[in-house]
Amino acid sequence: MGMDYHGETFGADTKEYRNHAIYQDSKxxxxxxxxxxxxxxxxxIGDHGINADGAHGGTTSDQRDVPLFLIQSDxxxxxxxxxxxxxxxxxxxxxNLLGIPIPLTMKHPPLLLD
Length: 114
Fold this sequence. Notes:
Number of domains: 2
Strand content: 5-15%
Distance between the termini: 32 Å
Order of helices and strands: HHEHEH
Structural class: mainly alpha
Number of strands: 2
């Protein structure tokens, strides 16, 4: 909840928010290395965006668009693809990765992975 707190308290375009993002990155980076070495597929995504005023849940792109990192242990990364995907593709993607059938109620397809 640290990112939510810093974003809502100070806004997205502040040193407090950026510094907390750097802090979280420094904690996550060594874990990603370890998890890749263990052969895990790693999915990192935000649950919502936030604007400069600290608002989220709205309809603007800064409140709705979030980064998505899908890291596979045996695949070279493609970097920033600029691709926009729907949050509704996340659950089917996870089910697909786990080899679990995707229910017919999930209308969006899983992400195509290299």
